[in-house]
Design brief:
The chain is of the alpha/beta class. Helix content is 44%, strand content 19%. It is built from 25 helices and 29 strands. Strand 9 and strand 10 form a beta hairpin. Bound molecules: GDP-alpha-D-glucose.
Length: 749
Amino acid sequence: MSKIIIVSNRLPVKVRNEGGQSIFTPSEGGLATGLASVHSDGNLWIGWPGTEVEGEQQQKLVTDQLSKHNLVPVFLSKQEITQYYEGFSNEVLWPVFHYMTPYAKYDSVYWQYYQRVNAKFRDAILQIAQPGDRIWIHDYQLLLLPKLVRSAIPGVTIGFFQHIPFPSYELFRQIPWRSELLHGMLGADLVGFHTYDDARHFLSSVTRILQLQTSSNIIHYNERTVVSESFPMGIDSNKFMSLVNDRDVINERQHLEESYKGQKIVLSIDRLDYSKGILQRLQAFDSFIQNNPEYKEKVTLYMIVVPSRDSVPQYKELRDEVDKLAGNINARYRTNNWTPVNYFYRSFPIETLSALYQLADVCLVTPMRDGMNLVCKEYVASREKDNGVLILSEMAGASKELTDAIIVNPNNITQMSEALLEALHMPEEEQQRRMTQMRELVSKYNVSHWAKIFMERLDEVKRMQESLQTKYISPRIQQLIKNKYSRGHKRLFLLDYDGTLVGFNTNINRAVPDKELYHLLDDLTKDEKNHVVIISGRKHETLEEWFGTLKLDLIGEHGVWQKTYRGEWEEVKGLQTEWKKEVMTMLNTYTERTPGSFIEEKSYSLVWHYRKTDKELGEMRATELMNNLRYMIADKGLSLLAGNKVVEIKPTEANKGKTAVHYLRKHHYDFVMAIGDDVTDEDMFKALKDEAITIKVNSNTSAAKYYLRDFKEVRELLKNLPAKMLITKVFDKFINLIPTSMFGIKKNK
Ligand code: GDG
């Protein structure tokens, strides 16, 4: 039976070494509980046990403990942990992904270890993966793993989820190994993030750094389509709701209430990290007391900082600064009855956290950057009475969902200080209104829901890939086409030019036909049964210059101009040009504002090209331009075409679809092949009947029946058709020499 294999840097366990023995306890962390439903029924979880385990202890740990819980360890040496985890993951990826690039240390030894350890995880997967298994890889420590696994098992289903932010392209591009990292992630079928912005940044890096084509959130990656989407992670809300009635928690809460009688409690809980905005939060609290002295002795900041990575110099420095600032605030404001900042540098049991969540009047969650942030959701889930106020940084992924919080910019100390005042003054009704909404959301979109929708989407993506895959011209389909070709007596070829017969060039004048193409067209047209038509958006003069002497029909400007072999150029009658002046004025303003763009004037159409502009600027301007033009051309019998890096305005009368139909009416063809790469070719694909072989180049989302990856594959296909015919002819002759009785059939004369 197929299974799910979860892979994360850490296994959901705590293993500690006591007197040479490995002591094991399952972890109750968010990811572990969230994936509990997935990690059951024979499904497996691969990861590092979280501590160095000596050689002879490893097997014992596996057989005595891990295998009983369906856990598969990847044992890492001290050196590997230092270089791959503390080094590359936490000193390169963590700072860059949290917009702290000056902290990044681009050490090539870190990179070597990162690759090596990712390969170690791959080997662990390969040991246990079976055909049909689904693999769900987690987080930034394993960015290379999807590709490594895919190279070993090409058809495998892989989901990848990143728990921390994905930065803007401008930051991501700074990493020396940016392309390798992206290729690594694209080994997955579905790449998930907490927020839409993260997914958007990832797509932008993929298109800019790897020059890949995307349509909306679908990335065309070789012959596979990869989907990138947001899946905001939830918490185990039931657990936090039921902790409210736990005996130990009730005792703890009563004890805390006693200790802080008459005080308003502002709660802050984080791991020690520069991304969490701990210093800025202290500054805001300082400013709040300074500006609102009436709150002295009435408000306490209860601040838990959980120790983390304090062997790294930046974390050590941060800890010193936090100690200093908290000490400084207390030294200035403390009274005999009051300590303004109750600061703890340690972790607490979950029961204490729950009691604090219930006790706190305000929860102050102000990270500088955070993928999601679960603390704020845990606070909300613990507010059984639907009161309390959440102050939340707009830089936390959770701010996109918990919009009823007071949203602040963590760099704006004054705003945070004012938010504290607003929170402490907020009427109970207003608190209830906001908290009820947030509690509903946190309860509905809990962590099991998150895991469920991710897996469902992964299955959907796989199904989509499979249905698209059938469109690719495999050797088997190619053989069927060849067979049909060899049976044909009157064959029509409708061939687009740019992007179909030649590659896409940023300079339109450089996309000239080459020798190979001339040979190919020559061979194709030599056969009397073939009628070849080049059907392009290019100017008819250009087509004449390039193909005028070949035995071809030529169609220019998407059907405005037509010429049969040895005939004269003719244009569609009655087309207007008066509209050009007004449209040209608009195009000029866009060209002025968009460096690299230019206008091409054809006899009956105008084209705005943006293939040489900055990609995203070009696309933004093209959308803007089309919105304006749509209105302007509404009553002029014109069509607006959004092509490959072009916007074209042309008479509706002439299009490739109409031209195709015109050809079909003229003759009775028994073999029709239409190939194109552009939006304009879709008219042609739609106009042709089912029997026609319609082929889209460079994309598999099209009305065409089949697709090919690029112009080189188009040339290969066309080249092989006449070759096959030659073989067929020889074969036919040979067959004719053999008495039919040998086949037991009657030969068709
Ligand atoms: C990464 C991303 C994303 C904290 N102190 C104690 C304690 N905690 C628990 C909290 C919470 C968890 O730790 C912290 O989760 P966060 O989401 O806030 O932050 P990261 O650890 O940085 O997590 C983050 C997350 O992945 C999930 O995708 O949201 O953006 O950075 O659950 O309760 N737990 C206990 N004692 C403590 O003292 N027991």
